[in-house]
Amino acid sequence: MADVPAECNIKVLCRFRPLNQSEILRGDQFLPKFQADDTVIGKSYIFDRVFPTNTTQEQVYNTCAKQIVKDVLCGYNGTIFAYGQTSSGKTHTMEGKLHDPHQMGIIPRIAEDIFNHIFAMDENLEFHIKVSYFEIYMDKIRDLLDVTKTNLSVHEDKNRVPYVKGCTERFVSSPDEVMDVIDEGKANRHVAVTNMNEHSSRSHSIFLINIKQEHVETEQKLCGKLYLVDLAGSEKVSKTGAAGAVLDEAKNINKSLSALGNVISALAEGTKSHVPYRDSKMTRILQDSLGGNCRTTMFICCSPSSYNDAETKSTLMFGQRAKTIRNTASINLELTAEQWKRKYEKEKEKNKTLKDTIQKLEAELNRWRNGEDVPETEQTTSDVVNRIEAVEERPVLDNDTSSIVVRISEEERQKYEEEIRKLYKHHLIKIRRDLSVSLLSTHMMIQLLASSRGDGDKVQAELGRLQVESDCAKAEVKEVLQALEELAINYDQKSQEVEEKGLQNQLLADQLSQKMASLMELEAELSRMQEVSGQQRKRIADVLNGLMRDLSEFSTIVGNGEIKLPVEISGAIEEEFTVARLYISKIKSEVKSMVKRCRQLENMQLECHRKMEETGRELSSLYYRFCYVHSPQSSAPSCCLCFNRGLSQSLSLQRITSNRLRSFLFLFFSTFYCRNHHILRNTVHLLFSCPEGCSSAGRVSPRPPSQAAGPPAG
């Protein structure tokens, strides 16, 4: 298969959607009129095809996209993209309803058509199909198949073809797998609600299908890429009512579409040496699709409403400019070793032919310059043209896909031969005229030499003097050059020193800025620590005042007088803690003694109670004995009853006294335990929350009240 690059224009198709419900309710007028399948009249706009409002999705696909699938499978690059204002039907044209056989758009139909063609092709062909799906949102490339990749970059391969680096590629083997990828990417795409479209695309989406095929027997490899682009619509904020984040999205959309318009204008004019592909990531990715190695089809989607007449005219003019752009499409063929060898032999033969032709032309030119007439039969014009034509008609494989091979027809060859003959005749006349002038000049020079021969000696002497002066001047120039070289070397050294000093100054400035930043951080930390220290000091003062207040109350209870409360905390925190510790120690010793005394009193009470019971029992027995021995029988019961009553009263009195004593002791120890527990808790909290500035000597080991004073007895 010969890789012969062919020029082709961008194919532009215009599609009008019907009036939508809001336009019908508003009473908008249906503006466009169609003269033929390729013309919109009023002001005539001619495109490759115009689709009226009643065109079905299948008709659109069969007309424009079906052929491009065959081209991609033959090794060409292809691009289909939709352009137009917002709510003009771009997404409906490219995607449609993905799983509806009648309403599905170009992308799902291409997914099915590719595999249908592959299944019908030669069995010796192996295919590898990869798909990628990404969007350009806020001028950042975002992978729709991996949402973690939010800012991909555009690079160039070895053939200087732009591609998105790091984009996810999925291998697919059936239309269902392709549809799964489309569904996954579509779910991650940015959309929003505006006044003109309930599902407005807020980004440019690009679905890339990369098809590589290899013939098993011949080892011939072909590669084709198909870009399916759904551009976001241009917006007028006054109509869409965009605000906030939607407004920022509209700004970026209009900016990227403006960059696309600049590229189209530059390519359409054909006079600008620079095409601003790098102004936008979208135009950078589509660089090959616009004026490069690609067969491109563009849909311009328009609204028929009179409400959008300005945007529709702008879209139609954009399509007319794009229609003038010429691409150079060639097959992406990977050569085998044998094909490279044949190509080398052909190039070698071509080089040899051109060298022979150049030698003959040089010989002929020398004959013309020497004043000889070269007969037409000896001229190499026709021979040169025939050889060039023979070389150019051979199918030469070239790696540079952007080169153009021109075929010369017989009529053009005759025209070129006639033109060359005219040029040779004109050149011959010019050479003869130049020879005549040269002969006249030579004759005049001979006369001048004859007249000036007598002055030859003087001229010779003058030449000798001038030679000496020239030698002196050369020596001076040499010295000056040496001095200049030394100055240049010194200048280079000084420049290098200046650069080194500049780098050192920059380094010192960076270090100074770092030190200043560290100093500011330390100052902020110091101020924070001072503030924390002040809060801690205030907190310590409050806790100490509370502790001293509790100690004062407890001292009042135990009868040691009041303790003077500190009004504010002073610098000598050690002394304050020492005083508090001394009071606590003193109160602890007093409490211990009181507890000890209380226990003694309890023991004495128990002993007295026991002795009293024993004495009562003895008295009772003695009394009974006495009554039976010394008293008459009649008075014994009454005496016994009186004695028992007296004894019962005495026991009741003892019990009341004992209960009162127990109540007093219980009340005393309950009050003491509560107050002592509160004091110890405050002391422990104060000592363990003390700043690092406090001495360890001022700390008291916390001990529960049960260990300090013992549990209340009884």
From TrEMBL:
Domain Kinesin motor: 9-325
UniProt keyword terms in alphabetical order: ATP-binding, Coiled coil, Cytoplasm, Cytoskeleton, Microtubule, Motor protein, Nucleotide-binding, Phosphoprotein
Gene Ontology CC: one annotated term: microtubule
Binding site for ATP: G84, Q85, T86, S87, S88, G89, K90, T91
Coiled coil: 330-371, 474-539
SMART domains, per the entry: KISc
Stated family: Belongs to the TRAFAC class myosin-kinesin ATPase superfamily. Kinesin family.
Region annotated Disordered, chain positions: 695-714
The organism's taxonomic lineage, starting at the top: Eukaryota, Metazoa, Chordata, Craniata, Vertebrata
Superkingdom of the source species: Eukaryota
Gene Ontology MF term list: ATP binding; microtubule binding; microtubule motor activity
Name this polypeptide is given: Kinesin-like protein
Subcellular location as annotated: Cytoplasm, Cytoskeleton
GO biological process assignments: microtubule-based movement
